Amino acid sequence: MRFRHPDGSTVHLAYCTNVHPAETLDGVLAQLRDHCAPVRRRLGRDRLGIGLWLARDAARALVTDPSALRGLRCELDRRGLEVVTLNGFPYEGFGAEEVKYRVYTPDWADPERLEYTTSLARLLAGLLPDDVPDGSISTLPLAWRTAHDPERAEASRTALRTLAERLDALQELTGRSLRIALEPEPGCVVETTRDAIGPLTAIGHDRIGVCVDTCHLATSFEDPHTALDDLVRAGVPVVKSQLSAALHAEHPHLPEVREALRAFAEPRFLHQTRTSTAAGLRGTDDLDEALAGGTLPDGAPWRAHFHVPLHAAPAAPLTSTLPVLKSALTRLVGGPHPLTRHLEVETYTWQALPPELRPKGRAQLADGIAAELTLARDLLTDLGLKELP
User: Fold this and answer.
1) How far, in Å, CA of 167 to CA of 341, rounded?
2) pLDDT digit string, tens, across residues 292-319
3) Beta bridge partners of 318
4) Rounded CA separation 223/319 (Å)
5) Would you state the pLDDT for residue 10?
6) CA–CA separation, 376 vs 325, rounded Å?
């Protein structure tokens, strides 16, 4: 979906396909047919943007076979779909029964991460619509915190500088300008937007910036306007933003609130949980740890890294951080010029919701994704952006 900003630039809105697990190229093609095209039809659009996730094996198949890449591009066109951004955070296995800490490997100190992301850049250059000169790829924020010593930190910086040089060369070859976005996430080396400023300033290349995920922003209790103003002052580009909402518990000391939270403590994904205290941010790596008792102060609200559907807040006594998303979006695209032109709805946890909230089959999932995109569209038009055909 495309929107015209009042300054005349085009802002792109997509939804991320990591909600539809697929490790192979055949699986990706099936996603386009079974999920993406039905969402587009529900929205009554001739064209729908998708933030494509290509697992390692799918990316390898495409980068080693130019005819396969041309086939994917033709399939996108045939189904009324376009790609301006890729989600390069998960490497493989995102559809496994247990993902948890595995999603953070390989990290940026490992050569596999550089080669994978380089492949994604080459593929995106071939997938961008003819009238779109620039693309974005979001990636993990260096590493999970426990796997990062000074030697690995330097290896990460070197890898990202090498990637930036490759992107420069790719632009010379293809005319397409691609940028990489580190995505701050609780528990990682770069947990907050402020944590991103130092490493990105040290790398010192405008091809490497930040992906602002509004669920992660909210989970870490960051104020959106302060966070984004800090990035602007530091000269760190906001390459992309993922529109998402976290789980919010206003009174976590109450037994009924704890019981409601337990329904979201599931075994597949990591749900980092945070609370803001007078002594600073406190947290656990997962929601079940927070609920175990005594590990996390419960005198102030808790927020958990659980991407809940944008259009459907959890039932009381829980809610979502949708107000944080709205505030962030106002700063991102509501000013005289957009801070970013790539927006992506990323609710990958539909099948991890409590059983009674999960979609029953493809049709209900498509309905839910279309409803999220409708909400995002309405927020953008309320900010003065004009939806384009």
Assistant:
1) 19
2) 978 999 999 999 999 999 999 899 999 9
3) 249
4) 18
5) 98
6) 10
Which residues share a beta bridge with 319? 248
DSSP letters along 142-158, please? Answer: S-BGGG--HHHHHHHHH
Coil vs helix vs strand at 387? strand
What's the CA dihedral at 324, 329, 332, 337 to 10 degrees? -150
CA distances from 86 to 109, 122, 276, 358 (A): 21, 11, 32, 25
Strands 208-213 and 280-284: unpaired
**DSSP helix/strand/coil, 88:** coil
Q: How far apart are CA 1 and CA 343, in angstroms?
A: 10
The H or E element containing residue 200 is: helix 193-203
* Residue 6 identity: P
| Helix, strand, coil % in the chain, rounded to nearest 5 | 45, 20, 35
CB 85 within 8 A of CB 11: no
For the beta carbon of residue 363, count every other beta carbon within 10 angstroms.
11
| 33, two tokens | 């047919």
Residue 185 binned pLDDT confidence (cut-offs 50, 70, 90): very high
Question: CA 146, CA 178: separation in Å to the nearest integer?
Answer: 30
Report, as an integer, the average pLDDT of 12-41.
97
Rounded Cα distance, 341 and 159, in Å: 26
Phi and psi torsions of 253, nearest 5°: -80, -15
DSSP letter at 344 equals E
**Which residues, 6 or more positions from 359, have their beta carbon under 8 angstroms from its beta carbon?**
350, 351, 365, 367, 368
Q: Which residues make Cβ contacts (< 8 Å) with residue 210, sequence separation at least 6? A: 181, 182, 183, 184, 193, 196, 200, 231, 236, 237, 238, 239
Q: What pTM was estimated for this model as a whole?
A: 0.97
Note whether 2 and 12 are within 8 A (CB).
yes
* pLDDT tens profile 211-254: 999 999 999 999 999 999 999 999 999 999 999 999 999 999 99
Token pair recorded at residue 127:
């997938």
Rounded-to-10 torsion of CA 28, 34, 35, 40: 110
pLDDT at 79 over 90: yes
* Residue 387 tokens, joined: 């939806």
Q: How far apart are the first and last CA of the chain?
A: 8
CA 33, 35, 38, 43 torsion: positive or negative?
negative
Average predicted confidence (pLDDT) for the chain:
97
